[in-house]
Amino acid sequence: MGRRRQKRTMGIKQRPNYLKTLLFTAATSVAINGVSQVDRGTHVNTLKNTSCLLVEKGFVNKRMKASGYKEYFLRCSVQDYFIKFCESEVSKKSLEPLLDKGIEVDMEIFQGEWDSCPSDSFPVQSRTGYYAVIKNVKK
Question: Does residue 93 fall inside a structural domain?
């Protein structure tokens, strides 16, 4: 003879409303932390009077396809540093005449997101790694 299993269920009034709890938690988190905060990255080093070669590299997406978009890097010794212009005190246009030349810069090195900027109003998907913020180019 088989025993019947009794199905235990909570009454409608006893059942917690998980969706309301989730929405409340998300709204509270956004209110406390803010949506538009972009992490600047971890400060690694400040370098003054550093000699580097300014190079241009083509952007390659996740599928390893070239997009035709070019980005600038500082080749310093054995490391290439992505130049994050939105945090730098120089523009990409001002560096164009110095392309493929040795330049002397004052810069800060960070480890963090390359494609997100403090002015972004929402988080963006980004590449991560070491990047340079140029403070000054010595002529």
Answer: yes
Closest of 51, 68, 50 to residue 59, by C-alpha: 68
How far apart, in Å, are the Cα atoms of 4 and each of 1, 7, 8, 49?
A: 10, 9, 12, 82
Residue 67 lies in domain: 42-138
pLDDT tens-place string over residues 92-137: 999 999 999 999 999 999 999 998 998 888 888 888 999 999 999 9
Residue 86 inside a domain? The answer is yes
Which whole-number Å values give the CA distances from 100 to 72, 74, 124, in the listed order?
10, 10, 30
CA distance 42 to 110: 5
Distance CA 134, CA 42 (A): 16
Q: What is the pTM of this model?
A: 0.68
The number of distinct structural domains making up the chain is: 1
Do the domain assignments include residue 114? yes
